[in-house]
């Protein structure tokens, strides 16, 4: 192979030989030989194309209201901002490394705060690991537990990093879809109508199943799993000795009468569950990138090994700010002054605003029970204008979003990217909007929608 590459190179520069060709021949040979060696690790095969890059770029086009990406465009609460300022301007030692597995005041408050919610006595040193965002917690968990050939059950639609993280660890993702049932007459579609088929879920468990990823409240659908649904997942995990990776980053963002339940709080589940959280989602500060994972020492000790040998340590000042914010919340817990009480009330108003606006122009939102997001059923458009520009094999929702950005000035995320490849065509008639937005952004959305509606009039 190398000999062939060198021969091609000689052929190309042959006519130059005798001029300044000595140096260029050497350079060419060097480049050819360097290129002949495989560069990227095999674990990146199949995951190197990320649709987010394309859609995030489209959002930066002029005059587009960005309802695509999941971050608040309003400030975190004052007490959290003050905590960060205090961390930056106070004790100079907060500029230095702290304990690798978490700044002690943070692991302490996380242990006491979540210990009460999970009904466990948590040891800050053994049951808590602070990570670079929830992303870091998830990556560490997959690396620590998933072996070559292990199967990981992923419930669709799913936060898209679960699949590449499973693959990078050498695992095999096994998908099971939540399926929608029609809304009752006169009722709005709700994320609660999307359910797992218990028989189908049970059929996915095999002797190779190592873990199941459960995301509640779910991104992108906004589904909040009910107690019976969690009990079903819990009993299958126990029956097949499977670890549950519970991604609960939106746990405080639950609306109407619904309630978030941590699967780790169900009988027999603490010992086999990793509960993942995010300060970014908790305090509306996604740029802080502080996350955590809670679990029994028998699981967490392996995550600590990965953490110790990869990132080792998360920024101390951000951890200090999160610690102080949780200390404040612990004092206000359950009271009207608590951010965890106020935030869902405010965000529910934004959700309702968006639902009403979308309906008023004839779009069909599926009302989410929780999270930052709602999805919209665009199957009517698919029937009316099936031939939107784009490659024939490109899922409809991707073409629809590109069309909508260009023609309507609204940015969403196509929902098929939250499904495995074989299922994308089945779920290519939904788009995701984020309603964790300032009133001014929602008003800008209203204006775009009203113009869209006027365009529909004869
Ligand atoms: C379901 C889910 N899990 C994890 C994350 C990552 O959170 P973080 O920003 O703390 O890394 C996100 C972010 O969008 C998410 O939606």
UniProtKB/TrEMBL annotation:
<dbReference type="Pfam" id="PF00155">
    <property type="entry name" value="Aminotran_1_2"/>
</dbReference>
<dbReference type="InterPro" id="IPR051326">
    <property type="entry name" value="Kynurenine-oxoglutarate_AT"/>
</dbReference>
<dbReference type="InterPro" id="IPR004839">
    <property type="entry name" value="Aminotransferase_I/II_large"/>
</dbReference>
<comment type="similarity">
    <text>Belongs to the class-I pyridoxal-phosphate-dependent aminotransferase family.</text>
</comment>
<dbReference type="GO" id="GO:0047804">
    <property type="term" value="F:cysteine-S-conjugate beta-lyase activity"/>
</dbReference>
<keyword id="KW-0663">Pyridoxal phosphate</keyword>
<dbReference type="GO" id="GO:0005829">
    <property type="term" value="C:cytosol"/>
</dbReference>
<keyword id="KW-0732">Signal</keyword>
<keyword id="KW-0456">Lyase</keyword>
<dbReference type="InterPro" id="IPR015422">
    <property type="entry name" value="PyrdxlP-dep_Trfase_small"/>
</dbReference>
<dbReference type="GO" id="GO:0016212">
    <property type="term" value="F:kynurenine-oxoglutarate transaminase activity"/>
</dbReference>
<comment type="pathway">
    <text>Amino-acid degradation; L-kynurenine degradation; kynurenate from L-kynurenine: step 1/2.</text>
</comment>
<feature type="signal peptide">
    <location>
        <begin position="1"/>
        <end position="18"/>
    </location>
</feature>
<protein>
    <recommendedName>
        <fullName>Kynurenine--oxoglutarate transaminase 1</fullName>
        <ecNumber>2.6.1.64</ecNumber>
        <ecNumber>2.6.1.7</ecNumber>
        <ecNumber>4.4.1.13</ecNumber>
    </recommendedName>
</protein>
<dbReference type="InterPro" id="IPR015421">
    <property type="entry name" value="PyrdxlP-dep_Trfase_major"/>
</dbReference>
<feature type="domain" description="Aminotransferase class I/classII large">
    <location>
        <begin position="63"/>
        <end position="443"/>
    </location>
</feature>
<dbReference type="InterPro" id="IPR015424">
    <property type="entry name" value="PyrdxlP-dep_Trfase"/>
</dbReference>
<keyword id="KW-0808">Transferase</keyword>
<keyword id="KW-0032">Aminotransferase</keyword>
<dbReference type="GO" id="GO:0030170">
    <property type="term" value="F:pyridoxal phosphate binding"/>
</dbReference>
<dbReference type="GO" id="GO:0047316">
    <property type="term" value="F:glutamine-phenylpyruvate transaminase activity"/>
</dbReference>
<keyword id="KW-0963">Cytoplasm</keyword>
<comment type="subunit">
    <text>Homodimer.</text>
</comment>
